[in-house]
Amino acid sequence: MNNKDISRNFLRALSDTIPHGILAVNKDGKIIVLNKVFSEILNLCEEEVLGKDIQEVVPRCQIRTVMTSGQARTRNLYKLNGRIFFADYFPLKNGEEIIGGVAVFEDITKVKKVETELQEVTAYKKILEAVLENAYEGIVIVDRDGKIIMFNGAYADFLGIKPEDAIGRHVTEIIENTRMHEVIKTGIAEIGQLQRIGKHNAVVQRLPIKINDQVVAGVGKIWFKDLRDMENLFKHLKSLQDELAYYKEELRRTQGGRYTIENIVGNSPHIRKLKDLIARAARSSSTVLILGESGTGKELVAHAIHNLSNRSHHPFVRINCAAIPENILESELFGYAEGAFTGAQRGGKIGKFELAHRGTIFLDEIGDMPFSMQAKLLRFLQEKELERLGENKTRHIDARVIAATNQDLPKKIKKGEFREDLYYRLQVMTLEVPPLRERKEDIPFLVNYFIEKFNREFGRLIRKVDSKVMETLLSYEWPGNVRQMENVIERAYNLTEGDCITLESLPLYLAEMSPRTPIKEGVSLSLLQAKDELEKNTIETILKEVQGNRSKAAKLLGITRASLYQKLKKYGLM
Ligand SMILES: Nc1ncnc2c1ncn2[C@@H]1O[C@H](COP(=O)(O)OP(=O)(O)OP(=O)(O)O)[C@@H](O)[C@H]1O
């Protein structure tokens, strides 16, 4: 090996120890030396590259430029095969003569990646800070040592400090009664907690932030600066819910059918008397007060009076004084003028009394009418006049008032909850709807009526109820009256597979009540049979009562003489 070869090998061995890519060219730009790192950068072996033109092997390389200018160029960015390099170019000189050039490539791909990530993180941090700053709630972020790393303006305002005074301090030094430092230790979130801060009972949330199951930070947030704010919000929500429930119920009612006197089922002396009073009430326009336990059929009676009266072609408007939220009751009843209050609809709103003009207004659950409204109602009853809220104009309204309650009004008067003058004004005519337990003879008729109704509604055909079922229904006391019974029948109806309702389909509280004396052990009584049996008994009782006077009996039974004759014939009572 000659001296020249020795020095070339030495040079190559030396350049291989350097972690950067090194490549040299002669004055013609042909590659004469490259180290291992450069071959690896080019992904070519030494033999494939040596003697080749530099531009061919490393395009966009600036060696030729520095060889022409004689000036080195460093820190140029060079991208190759998805990697990024700092490229330094130097001219090689022998005295003043340029005899070649050198390129040194340093791989900075990883550094670049870190730099890009850093830029992204900085951008995210700025976004996060902007979000925190614009948040309405007070927010604090602490690191795993409990030191505050972020603190927004809302929190700072609440505490009366500057955000920069809080940053870097331990959270316990800045926020009274905080537990953020505990949450970081326990890793357990604390949601909706009360925290005394100054004069306020704040409602707060404390969350640990975890990465790979390790707590790295904690976020504290003030939900409500004071418990009262939360209570007010809940109150507002509750009143909105009440309003919604009220309108839903109203919608259901307006879509419901119109009841007439024919829809009042039953033939007991009580019901006959009631129907008689309904007919009388329908002839006048006097105020009517309907009394009776819940579910006895008071609303049905109010409908019947209206539909039998000469107002039947005008509206029947129902208002449930107990269900309607107190804050909208007055405007619902009397209406309001445009701009009467914030949120009032344009053009104002017509009230229920006006809606019922020439028709009937039914004030259900009158016992629950707020005391403040009772005076206004009294004035309407006396003068039949009203003014919309926020308006001076007096309007004359011809609406007949029917009120109903299941409450003991005299007792409420004594307690100072109901106006005595209103009570007397209401009970021009009083109708009492008896509870079901006092007219059990109506039960088979009602059972039959409801089953037929469900047959029509559900398109099925149930014909009978087991005799034990009927007996159970007859012996129960029905605290919820007809509504409760209707619900029981509907439930049983839906549970029944065949055409006969049996004891198993009754609710447990009824089914477990063992009938004292079964009508006929184990025998099913068809609905028609049950009805016939009862009809026959009723006719016999009435005939006895009127000593056989068939005209009187027909009148009492509420049927024509002709139909009484038909029935007498049918039951062999002629
Ligand atoms: N004699 C009846 N004949 C047929 N259905 C009846 C009879 N009485 C009540 N109902 C039915 O029972 C249910 C309850 O009646 P209604 O709503 O009129 O009672 P209410 O006394 O006004 O109740 P509340 O006091 O709870 O307002 C309704 O479905 C009604 O159709």
Describe this structure in words.
The chain is of the alpha+beta class and 574 residues long. It folds into 4 domains: 3-107, Beta-Lactamase, CATH 3.30.450.20; 113-225, PAS domain (Beta-Lactamase, 2-Layer Sandwich); 257-264 and 284-434, 3-Layer(aba) Sandwich (Rossmann fold); 438-570, Helicase, Ruva Protein, domain 3 (Orthogonal Bundle). 45% of the residues lie in helices and 21% in strands. The strands form 6 sheets. Strands 2-1-5-4-3 form a 5-stranded antiparallel β-sheet, sandwiched between helices. Strands 7-6-10-9-8 form a 5-stranded antiparallel β-sheet, sandwiched between helices. It has a 5-stranded parallel β-sheet with strand order 12-15-18-11-19. Helix 23 (527-545) crosses helix 24. The longest helix is centred in the middle third of the chain and has 29 residues, at 227-255. The termini are far apart. It binds adenosine-5'-triphosphate (ATP). Adenosine-5'-triphosphate (ATP) binds at residues 263-266, 292, 294-300, 364, 406, 449, 482-483, 486.
